[in-house]
Each structure stands twice: as structure tokens, then as C-alpha cells.
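Quiz preparation item.
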């Protein structure tokens, strides 16, 4: 931590209040000195040669006004000096006490920040009292802690899930190698079978790593390119890729696509469209249907991918966008890394868009992506 020099905020505020009080008191004392001298000097004229006594001292009549003014000013200075010292002293004490009370919540914020760690992010200030600037700062600090706690929890969950997902293919590889090495009679057929299993496991691990890299890249908000991209063209290409699987499963595909131009990273947007179309086919039922629609409405373009499938509970829709969540499918299944919708959400957010999912009556899911028109 960089060392800081100079007095603290409480001392500076006290000195500022004291300086202002001293300046105002001195100004009032000077004005009083002028006014009293002027008023007392305007005494009535006395007969020439007459004398009067001022503080026991005989004074000629023509010098009476001047003598009275000097005497009055002397009294004002004596009394004013005492009042000046009392006012400055009272200001110092009051400013020190009041600033201490006002700045106490700031000390609470500092103390809480120093106590915080990844294990104690549940602490909150919850500052009572009126809604002033300090309370607003404390509420902002609490909101920041809420975001940090959510981020840490998400990170921990993500790391745990990623570790589990990577452990599975690595365990498969090691098991196959150990079994084959332990078999002295392993022939070419057995070795080829082992190689096939290892290849599939490494492919799954590579898909997972690629997905993690895409998530890390897009959640950071950095886009490598911004080019005009037509979502309709990307959707048509994605449908051509899954056409063999569509035929094998007897799915019906309906399309309503018009040009939907947006500005963004073509590779990432292709990943979004591809993930949605692949999910619609992969998690469908035999003989089901898939519908892909693109459109432009004002400043937004829309991509909507709907499909039949298993019944999705409305309360579980949000969880579908979490990494490694597969809507009840076993986590160790080989039908994907469980990052599809997580990547969709991250990429869409990086393009200043929104994504919304809702269950289809009778079973299935509809996902709608809206992006700024390009």
C-alpha cells in the first residue's frame, strides 16, 4: 500500500472550519471597531474652552469626540479579543466532534474493507440514519460487495465444475492406457480400440477448453473484430451443418428468415447461432420439430430458435445459462461440454444484446436473441 502523507480528513475539516470562523470573527471585530468609533465620535458640540472628564482624565471639549472614540474602540478590542478567542476555541471543539461523528461511517467502511477476504464477503455495513452522501456511499459499498460475492461464488462454482468435467476425460485416458499396458496379450485390435477411446476423450477435453476460452474472452468484453454480419446467413449455414442429424432423427425444420444485419465478431456470432441450432436438434425428441426465425425491427435484430423436447420447468430456465448445466442430463454424458448457452449469454452480452429463454408448451425450449442492428 502506498504511504500517504499529511493530516487526515478530520484534521483538515477542523482546520478549515476554524480558519473560516477566525476570519469571520476577525471581520466582525474590525467592523465593530469602526462602527463604534464612528458613532461615539459624533458627539454634540460643547461651548469653547469647556472641559469634561473621560475615565477620570480632563479633556478639552474640542477633543471630546476623539477621546470617546479611542476609549470605545479600546473597550471593543478588549471584549472582542476575548470573544474572538472563545469563538475560535468553540469552533475547534465543535468541528472536531462533529466531523468525527460525520466521518465515523467512513471509518466503518474502511474497517470493513480491511477485514474482507474471499471467505468473509457476506459482511455488510447496512448504515442506519438519514439518506445523505455518507449513507449513499455505504449503500454503494454494500452493492459492490453483493456483486463481488456473486462473482466469487460463480467463480468457485465454475472452477469446481470445470475441474470435474476435465477430470472425466483424463480419467478415461489413464484407465484405458493402464488396462492396455497391463494386458500382455494386447493385439492391434485392442490398441486401435484404446486409441479410439483416447481420441474421443481428448476431443471432449478440447471442446471443453475451447468453450472455456470463449467464455473468458467474451466475459472480458473484448471483441477482436466488428464487421457487418447477417444472422440469417449464419442460421442457414448452421442448419446445413446439422442436416444429417436432422434427417436421422426425423425432425421437421421450419424457417422464417429475413435479413438481420448486426455489427460484431462474425466468429463469435457464428458460435451463438450454431450453439442454439445444435441444442435445438441435440435435445429434441424423435420426430419433433425445430423452428428458426430471424427478423429486423427498428434498432434491433432478432434471432429466435424454438424446438420440441422434454418439458422444462419455468424455474429452471435461468439455470440453463449456467456453465455445465444440462437441464437434468447427466454431467458425464458425451453430448456436449455443457457450455452452449453460457457461451451464448456471454457473447450476446459482449455485443450489447439480450438473450431470453422460455419453455414451449408441451415440451421444448424457445431462445430469443436480440442484438443492435448494424
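Solution:
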Amino acid at each position: 500500500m502506498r504511504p500517504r502523507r499529511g493530516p487526515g480528513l478530520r484534521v483538515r475539516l477542523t482546520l478549515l472550519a476554524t480558519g473560516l470562523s477566525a476570519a469571520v470573527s476577525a471581520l466582525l471585530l474590525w467592523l465593530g471597531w469602526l462602527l463604534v468609533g464612528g458613532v461615539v465620535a459624533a458627539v454634540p458640540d460643547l461651548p469653547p474652552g469647556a472641559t469634561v472628564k473621560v475615565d477620570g482624565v480632563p479633556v478639552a471639549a474640542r477633543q471630546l469626540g476623539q477621546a470617546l472614540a479611542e476609549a470605545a474602540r479600546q473597550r471593543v478590542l478588549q471584549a472582542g479579543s476575548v470573544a474572538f478567542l472563545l469563538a475560535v476555541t468553540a469552533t475547534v471543539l465543535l468541528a472536531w466532534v462533529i466531523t468525527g461523528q460525520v466521518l465515523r461511517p467512513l471509518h466503518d467502511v474502511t474497517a470493513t474493507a480491511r477485514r474482507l477476504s474471499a471467505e468473509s464477503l457476506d459482511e455488510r455495513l447496512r448504515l442506519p440514519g438519514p439518506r445523505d452522501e455518507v449513507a449513499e456511499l455505504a449503500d454503494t459499498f454494500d452493492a459492490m460487495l453483493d456483486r463481488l460475492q456473486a462473482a466469487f461464488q460463480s467463480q468457485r462454482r465454475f472452477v469446481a465444475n470445470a475441474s470435474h468435467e476435465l477430470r472425466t476425460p483424463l480419467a478415461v485416458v489413464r484407465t484405458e492406457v493402464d488396462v492396455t499396458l497391463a494386458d500382455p496379450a494386447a493385439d492391434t485390435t485392442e490398441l486401435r480400440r484404446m486409441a479410439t477411446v483416447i481420441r474421443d476423450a481428448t476431443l471432449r477435453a478440447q471442446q471443453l477448453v475451447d468453450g472455456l476460452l470463449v467464455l473468458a474472452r467474451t466475459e472480458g468484453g473484448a471483441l477482436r473484430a466488428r464487421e457487418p454480419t447477417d444472422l440469417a446467413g449464419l442460421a442457414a449455414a448452421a442448419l446445413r451443418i446439422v442436416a444429417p442429424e436432422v434427417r436421422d432423427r426425423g425432425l421437421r425444420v421450419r424457417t422464417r428468415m429475413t435479413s438481420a444485419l448486426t455489427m460484431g465478431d462474425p466468429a463469435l456470432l457464428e458460435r451463438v447461432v450454431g450453439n442454439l441450432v445444435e441444442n435445438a436438434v441435440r435435445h429434441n425428441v424423435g420426430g419433433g420439430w425445430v423452428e428458426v426465425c430471424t427478423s429486423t425491427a427498428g434498432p434491433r435484430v432478432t434471432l429466435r430458435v424454438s424446438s420440441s423436447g422434454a418439458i422444462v420447468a419455468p424455474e429452471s430456465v435461468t439455470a440453463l445459462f449456467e456453465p455445465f448445466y444440462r437441464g437434468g442430463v447427466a454431467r458425464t454424458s458425451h453430448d456436449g461440454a455443457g457450455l452452449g448457452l453460457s457461451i451464448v449469454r456471454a457473447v450476446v452480452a459482449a455485443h450489447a444484446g439480450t438473450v431470453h429463454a422460455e419453455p414451449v408448451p408441451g415440451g421444448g425450449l424457445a431462445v430469443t436473441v436480440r442484438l443492435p442492428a448494424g
